[in-house]
Amino acid sequence: TLFRSNIPTLFCAWPPQPCGQCEHQQSLVMGRSYFVEEAVQHYLSHLVVKQKDYLTGLLIGQHSPQRDFVVLAVRTPLKEEQSEVPQRKGGQLRLDTIDEEWVTEHARQVSRMLPGGLFVLGVFLITPPELSKDAQNALRKLIFSVEKSVMKRRLWSYAESDVPDRVALHMCSATKKIVCRTYDVHDAKSSAKPADWKYQSGLSCSWLPLECTLNIDIHIPLPAVSANHELQKSIRDALTRWALQVENSIFLINGQVRDEECELLQGQKKASRGTFHSTPFSFRILTPLPMSSGERATAAVQVCRGSAHLKGAVKCKAYIHSIKPKVKEAVQALKRDILNTVSDRCEALFEDLLLDGTPDQKDAVNKHDVLPRRVFAPITGSNVTLCDYMFEDETLKEIQERFLEMVDQ
User: Fold this and answer.
1) What's the whole-model pTM score?
2) pLDDT over threshold 80, residue 362
3) Dihedral angle sign, alpha carbons of residues 336, 338, 341, 347
4) How many CA atoms lie within 13 A of 368 on its CB side?
5) Residues 171, 44: contact at Cβ < 8 Å?
């Protein structure tokens, strides 16, 4: 686990454009503001002191309509065969040696550890001065690759209200200067926009933890064709049908249906320093029947060699910021956590089955008859927790080692 040390507050810089007119026009563009937990400042400071060459990592936090919050920075772990010194081409250190596939795979695995409301907000890159001019091109490429990787297997899609901007943070290891920009990941041709990077203590102290429990019963037919892609497709189709029920479900908050546009904390008394004396929220989910009485029934015949049932109570967890959060933000965070955790557990359950091939598929399914348990661990310097999935034959030491590898703590 890395130790942290203080560095002065750093301010973002927006470099001049080739012509004065362009520079003036760019300066008029208002960028997003990123409020960052002080522990992130200490972590980056330690990496700068330690790092001699370039280093990549992820920025974790939460979006809001007005601003974004960063609560965690995580360096990209080294491969087993990789040394601390990046590869050089022709004796020179170059950013085109960044292992993009490794960075995106790390992002995919970290995204599985995030409760509802938390996202991979972007990427950071620490370089020596001689590589600074190439940093933004490298960051832009990583931003779009990481976004594609973390969303590839998700059962939900972005809504119009979701923030499309992802942050690209460059830090010079010699001058400690930070350049913070954003890219619109919904636009493949988007250009960089300036953004503010501001450190703040106790950023997540007032965040609201949200919890709920959902009973699931998902039927997954196992196709007669023994190809891995057919099994994967069958699992995906079953989860997609179930996900539609979750998306159309109704949430009761403290036993009441509330207007989505209302503030979640409406009626709560304000305490000192802008926090609230919040009464714990009770969430209950009402899922619709698979088919309403007015719909016409359809049936499909499918040749199968068996089926799997996912049954049980799934406990879900999410976090929401305390700056006038709306009911729809809390509901959306919980819904996405429900979809993510069930999907991720299924992926972990069938992972060996898909990788080992067809001969032992039946044994593999019977072996893993219990979905992995979800376990939580706190983040250094934050009230937020991360999660992982633990099989019955795994130990807590193995989970701790995985946390250390994935999130560096």
Assistant:
1) 0.86
2) no
3) negative
4) 21
5) yes
